[in-house]
Design goal:
By secondary structure, the protein is mainly α. It has one domain: Winged helix-like DNA-binding domain superfamily/Winged helix DNA-binding domain (Arc Repressor Mutant, subunit A). It is built from six helices and two strands; from the N terminus they run αααααββα. Strand 1 and strand 2 form a beta hairpin. The longest helix is centred in the middle third of the chain and has 25 residues. The radius of gyration is 20 Å and the shape is globular. The protein starts with a helix and ends with a helix.
């Protein structure tokens, strides 16, 4: 193989280079990468809460302590999951999983086994 082929083959893409440059120099990512990382973090938080509720009856204090979030953050997450149709209010201070949430959690669990 030619040397130029190997250089091209192992040359970093523009995004890989940007990630490397930003993390090494400024310890930051580009706005697009930062947005994607934050969305991934939010999706993970949604899943963790839904999974906890799927497995057991949990109260807000336990969830806050386990997930390391504040009462306001939990309220925001719950409101977002209600808006998305994954939770529904059963009373002023209680929510339960919808069928969509149960389907989502079981799908994610099955996906993680493969």
């Amino acid at each position: 193989m030619s040397e130029s082929f190997l250089k091209k083959r192992f040359q970093k893409t523009k995004m890989e280079q940007e990630i490397t440059d930003n993390s090494a120099d400024k310890n930051q990512f580009s706005p697009l990468v930062q947005m994607m990382l934050e969305q991934t973090k939010k999706d993970d938080l949604y899943y963790q809460l839904l999974k906890m509720m799927y497995l057991d009856d949990v109260d807000a204090e336990y969830v806050e302590n386990y997930l390391g979030i504040s009462t306001d953050e939990l309220k925001t997450v719950v409101d977002e999951l209600v808006f998305l149709g994954f939770l529904k209010h059963t009373s002023d201070d209680e929510v339960e999983l919808t069928e969509e949430a149960i389907e989502y959690v079981t799908h994610q669990d099955m996906k993680s086994h493969f």
